[in-house]
Design brief:
The chain is an all-alpha fold. The chain folds into two domains: 70 residues, 434 Repressor (Amino-terminal Domain) (Orthogonal Bundle), CATH 1.10.260; 172 residues, Alpha Horseshoe (Serine Threonine Protein Phosphatase 5, Tetratricopeptide repeat), CATH 1.25.40. It contains 15 helices and no strands.
Length: 279
């Protein structure tokens, strides 16, 4: 008896008769990003925007109260428990993914910091200094995780998080905007490094280029030079010595850069390069 009734319409979900949430919804890039990062609040907002589901219908589907769905949609509340987030996404019919939410960072952040991050994601124009610090802690945790489990395991989540951060950047205002842009630049560079480690060279080079632009926008010349140096590292991996020299010279002549990046010319191995740049 393969009958799993939808909690909202009562039709059989296994036989494809339930159309409360069409399959095309889960195939949207923005939905994939939200699911990959475990962002239930954003999934609910997308459901409200792209389907005819009411808050009550979403509550019926995932086993929450209508008032809780309302708070999640507005960003007033968030689901801090990773297992509970997975249960809600599964109940909504989200496809299984290797979710890499701001995890292991979630365990490294206090409850207040997690709430602050959730508020910043929902209200980017009100982002404050502690929220920028919390984003930095998330990135640091992802770097530690990559050291432990490898690039392939963390890339899907890191890339999904980056997409969210980039999407929010135009809406960030106030005195902490440049600090946030610098975090996005570092996140972009780290994502490029993950692609480089997997020898996805074209994507890695594109990300390093974007990281350089973001660093310039944030007024961080050292970070911009770091992104240029990584392009040089990629060129060395590809056996293009002239490109290595160009990248080295560009990094060394970046206004405001400290002369120490000259060591890049002698970084003949991935471990030494990673150590120098703090990875």
């Amino acid at each position: 008896m393969n009958h799993t009734p939808c909690r909202n319409c009562g039709k059989n979900k296994l036989k494809g008769r339930c159309l409360c949430i069409p399959r095309s919804f889960w195939e949207r890039d923005e939905t994939r990003e939200a699911v990959a990062s475990g962002d239930v609040c954003r999934v609910i907002r997308l459901l409200r925007r792209h389907t005819n589901l009411t808050q009550e219908a979403i509550a019926n589907l995932c086993g929450l109260t209508q008032s809780m769905v309302s708070r999640l949609e507005s960003g007033e509340r968030t689901l801090r428990d990773a297992q509970r987030r997975s249960q809600v996404l599964e109940a909504l019919g989200a496809p299984a993914v290797n979710q890499q939410d701001p995890s292991p960072a979630a365990s490294a952040l206090t409850v207040d910091e997690q709430d602050r991050l959730a508020y910043a994601l929902a209200h980017p124009s009100r982002l404050d200094g502690p929220a920028v610090t919390a984003f930095t802690q998330v990135l640091a945790a992802q770097r530690r995780l990559e050291d432990a489990v490898g690039s392939a395991a963390v890339l899907p989540g890191v890339a999904a998080q980056l997409a969210t951060l980039v999407r929010l950047l135009p809406d960030v205002r106030g005195p902490h905007r440049d600090a946030y842009a610098a975090v996005v630049a570092e996140w972009t560079q780290f994502t490029g490094w993950l692609h480089a480690a997997l020898r996805r060279d074209r994507t890695a080079l594109d990300l390093f280029g974007r990281a350089e632009e973001l660093a310039d926008d944030a007024g961080k010349p050292t970070l911009a030079a770091s992104a240029v140096s990584f392009r040089g590292y990629m060129a060395r991996q590809q056996g293009r010595p002239q490109a290595v020299i160009r990248a080295s010279q560009a990094a060394l002549h970046t206004p405001g850069i400290h002369p120490r990046p000259a060591h890049f010319r002698h970084a003949a191995s991935r471990p030494r390069l990673c150590s120098f740049w703090g990875y």
